């Protein structure tokens, strides 16, 4: 197995339909929302042991190079 095959095997856990829950620090849930990103942002997430949930957060980059939590996000395999 070459490096490309190994990388694709790791990504297999992401394939499928996911329900999304967004945590905007107490705001009501958003439905049909969209967003445009023209700034530095990244997603950091961790799979549960059974690989059916990804619990994570979006972070926004600051001018000094640090990252701050933007909002939490949970993906649950449907």
Quick tags:
single chain, mainly beta, four-stranded antiparallel β-sheet, 78 residues, flat, 12% helix
Please characterize this protein's 3D structure.
With 78 residues, the protein is mainly beta. The chain has one domain (3-77). Helices cover 12% and strands 42% of the residues. It has a four-stranded antiparallel beta sheet with strand order 1-4-3-2, with no helix packed on it. A hairpin with a 5-residue loop joins β3 (53-61) and β4 (67-77). The termini are far apart.
Shape: flat
The value of Rg in angstroms is 15 Å
Order of SSEs: HEEEE
Q: Percent helix among the residues?
A: 10-25%
Spans of at least 5 consecutive residues with low confidence: 33-37
Overall pLDDT, averaged?
80
In the residues, how many domains can be counted? 1
How many H/I helices? 1
Please identify the structural class as seen in this structure: mainly beta
Major pleated sheet: 4 strands, antiparallel
* β-strand amount: 35-45%
Q: Name the strands of the widest sheet in spatial order.
A: 1-4-3-2
In total, how many beta strands?
Answer: 4
What topology does this entry show?
Layout: H1 3-11, E1 18-23, E2 41-47, E3 53-61, E4 67-77
Antiparallel strand pairs: 1-4, 2-3, 3-4
Can you give me a brief rundown of this structure?
With about 80 residues, the protein is mainly beta. It has one helix at about 5-10, and strands at about 20-25, 40-45, 55-60, 65-75.
